[in-house]
């Protein structure tokens, strides 16, 4: 879950693909050789070493496994909800649209400490990169790539394994994705290798991350979007999660973090919260993040509504969701969403106008372009 420009992301960008790994079993075979017959009196051969016993599962290890299961399920949910937003809005993402393969990959070294043990036990991860998520509607999905497939080679180039596999695989896959309409991927599945012809997909090249914290917030640093565990729990439905994702994607498209010179502060917050053990003291107060100016928040709401409609989401309940959030977690909650997005009155008016505008365009069968 570590962030960074040299890490493999779940929607392989022009310089980085996303990958994960399936449980691979190592089959050991012993070769027998013929020996000359020995006299009966020969000393008996040494006894075979006892079979290796499974490690004792401590409470800490069991807790790590449970935590990892929860994290993986939430991240998978974010991928699923984000997929139509990213794929159906490539033209609205302008300079941030890229050729992507549409999958993420990880191995046992993607998690620290006891979480590495948990990744082996829960996900079957080992040294090889395995597909951890496939973006619905992507080239990877259409080619038949599945979660758990092991990544062997790309266009005949063997993909790396081991501790630095994510970084090194990005260096192999990036140039291939940026210059081709499709990619030949050799994968391992159920102990057998096969080749998939994987088309690239034009999509918004924003990484979507899970924040391991219970505050009700989300963050966008210009290249990534992060929803906290608390925000997902508050949103409840996939539709409401899409409302938040679209809003932050819109902030990225419009370059708001850069305009406010908050890229570094937001990137630091996202880096922290994507850790399996974030420093929650950084959430005290505002976390160094300034409130979003009214005009920027309004512009992001307008673009987000178009993105939602183009992705097939129902936009009729967007205003009600933001009203519910503001009522339960007002701007006085300093580490909450409304503390950074306080211009509720202007936002609600803009949402009403934009929903009406979109519905008129849909009725007239006009393009959904802001």
Question: What does this entry look like structurally?
Answer:
- The protein has helices at 59-87, 113-123, 139-143, 165-179, 229-235, 238-253, 256-259, 263-273, 294-310, 318-328, 337-340, 344-363, and strands at residues 97-100, 103-106, 130-134, 150-154, 157-158, 182-189, 192-199, 201-204, 207-211, 218-220, 224-228.
- The chain is of the alpha+beta class and 370 residues long.
- Strands 5-4-6-7 form a 4-stranded antiparallel β-sheet. Strands 9-11-10 form a 3-stranded mixed β-sheet, with helices on both faces. Strands 1-8 form a two-stranded antiparallel ribbon.
- A hairpin with a 2-residue loop joins strand 4 and strand 5.
Q: What topology emerges from the helices and strands here?
A:
Layout: H1 59-87, E1 97-100, E2 103-106, H2 113-123, E3 130-134, H3 139-143, E4 150-154, E5 157-158, H4 165-179, E6 182-189, E7 192-199, E8 201-204, E9 207-211, E10 218-220, E11 224-228, H5 229-235, H6 238-253, H7 256-259, H8 263-273, H9 294-310, H10 318-328, H11 337-340, H12 344-363
Parallel strand pairs: 9-11
Antiparallel strand pairs: 1-8, 2-3, 4-5, 4-6, 6-7, 10-11
């Amino acid at each position: 879950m570590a962030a960074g420009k040299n890490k493999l992301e779940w929607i392989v960008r022009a310089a980085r693909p996303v990958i994960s790994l399936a449980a691979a079993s190592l089959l050991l075979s012993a070769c027998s050789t013929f020996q000359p017959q020995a006299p009966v009196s020969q000393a008996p051969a040494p006894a075979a070493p006892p079979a290796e016993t499974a490690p004792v599962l401590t409470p800490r290890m069991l807790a790590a496994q449970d935590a990892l299961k929860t994290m993986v399920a939430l991240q998978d949910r974010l991928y699923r909800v984000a997929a139509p937003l990213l794929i159906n809005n490539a033209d609205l993402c302008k300079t941030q649209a890229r050729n992507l393969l549409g999958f993420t990959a990880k191995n046992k070294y993607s998690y620290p400490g006891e979480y590495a043990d948990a990744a082996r036990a829960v996900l079957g991860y080992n040294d090889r990169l395995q597909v951890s998520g496939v973006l619905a509607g992507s080239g990877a999905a259409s080619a038949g790539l599945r979660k758990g497939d092991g990544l062997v080679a790309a266009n005949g180039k063997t993909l790396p394994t081991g501790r630095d596999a994510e970084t090194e695989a990005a260096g192999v896959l990036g140039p291939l994705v940026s210059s081709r309409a499709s990619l030949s991927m050799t994968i391992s599945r159920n102990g057998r290798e096969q080749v998939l012809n994987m088309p690239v997909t034009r999509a918004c090249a924003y990484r979507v991350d899970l924040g391991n914290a219970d505050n009700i917030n989300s963050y966008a640093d210009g290249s990534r979007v992060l929803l906290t565990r608390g925000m997902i729990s508050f949103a409840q439905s996939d539709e409401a999660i899409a409302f938040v994702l679209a809003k932050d994607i819109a902030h990225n498209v419009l370059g708001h973090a850069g305009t406010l010179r908050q890229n570094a502060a937001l990137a630091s917050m996202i880096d922290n919260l994507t850790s399996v053990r974030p420093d929650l003291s950084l959430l005290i107060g505002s976390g160094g993040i300034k409130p979003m100016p009214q005009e920027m928040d309004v512009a992001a709401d307008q673009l987000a509504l178009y993105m939602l409609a183009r992705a097939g989401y129902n936009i009729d309940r967007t205003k009600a969701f933001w009203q519910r959030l503001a009522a339960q977690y007002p701007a006085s909650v300093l580490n909450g969403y409304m503390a950074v997005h306080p211009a509720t009155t202007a936002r609600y008016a803009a949402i009403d106008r934009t929903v009406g505008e979109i519905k008129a365009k849909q009725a007239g069968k006009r393009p959904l372009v802001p």
